[in-house]
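Structure tokens please, single chain.
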Amino acid sequence: MDVTLLGTGAPQGLPRPGCPCAACATAVGDEARAATALLVDGALLIDLTPGPAFAAARAGQSLAGVRQVLLSHPHDGPVLEVPAGLPQPGRVADGRELALLDGHRVRALAVDIPGTGYEISGPEGERLLYLPPGAAPSGLDGNGRTAGGGGQGTGGSGPYDLVLLDVLGRPEALARLRASGAVDAATDVLAVHLDHQVPPGPELHRRLAAVGARAVADGSTLRVGEFHAVPDLPRRTLVLGGARSGKSVEAERRLVAFPDVVYVATGGTRDGDEDWAQRVSLHRERRPSSWRTVETCDLVPLLAAAGPGADPGTRQPAEASPLLIDCLALWLTHVMDEVGAWDDATWEAGGRRALQERTDALVAAVRATHRRVVAVSNEVGSGVVPATPAGRRFRDELGRLNAAFGAECEQVLLVVAGQALALRG
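Here you go.
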């Protein structure tokens, strides 16, 4: 089954007409995108892009063989153009199945916004899932089936070969599909309905790769089920940055498309500190509601555990819940408190050794963990030299911890002014 992407953009296209933003200004050439539309084996057209006949011609395709045109969402872009000779566009009711004469089968799936998702099966059993812009599947049960679907809904026949969805606008939709088993490590996840929330080019592809997805240019043709190297997701990532650099946002973004994330808050609570309470509240509001929060500095057991996402019978580590640790600087502060590292005499009398033992244990746990881990830490060594010995001690120890922790990570990022720079991986 071949799928040609006549467009890969949001309903208004990219760049948006008249929009002065930086993303729209740089959306030129292959990065310019028409509204998303799919041509399946030349016979089935899903959604319409402005000028579909010209878009098909540019892709080396023809619409002459199209026998069915289906719409997935209420169109809020330019006026739809239906070329002469094409069937009148329609929509399939949720849960209903449409069989085409050439062997394709289309099943309509419920989504959580006005619109319809489509599961398309090819004559040889290939399967793809297409979701409209801003949509996530609704009513998934624990086996990946849609509620009331009689066992034939999303994921009911195992993972899809290809999934096309609004990865950037609704990353939690991808998390739901992964949790249900409809998407696995071999599924080709393609981002469509691309809008101007992310600058096109390297930054777009970097963000998509971080969640195991990719994007292609308008006019690309894909063979469903054909092997394609999916992005190699790092299992351990360290995100460094200064104050308000965007490091926590970057770390959260890397896990928002995965299910059962455990957010490990090492800062705890501070009675009477309103500023700290506001910071904690902002972090909580930004995180997906499905994430579980654990407030602790006891990181070694968490790194060693399989987590609630693992199979209790086999304890398969690959299925363990991902951890987001925010942050190592607060963990270090807590440990230095416990070993008395702030006092010079205590430091020399055994505090140094005790701190080294605790950091060695943490680094060893990171080296041995089977969980997906994203950790956040402050980069404080580039600023003003602290005025006190205790301040300089913290700066030095945090630098050593960052270096040792980062040495065990497949990827290390430095976030500056909201921009992530890859130091490794």
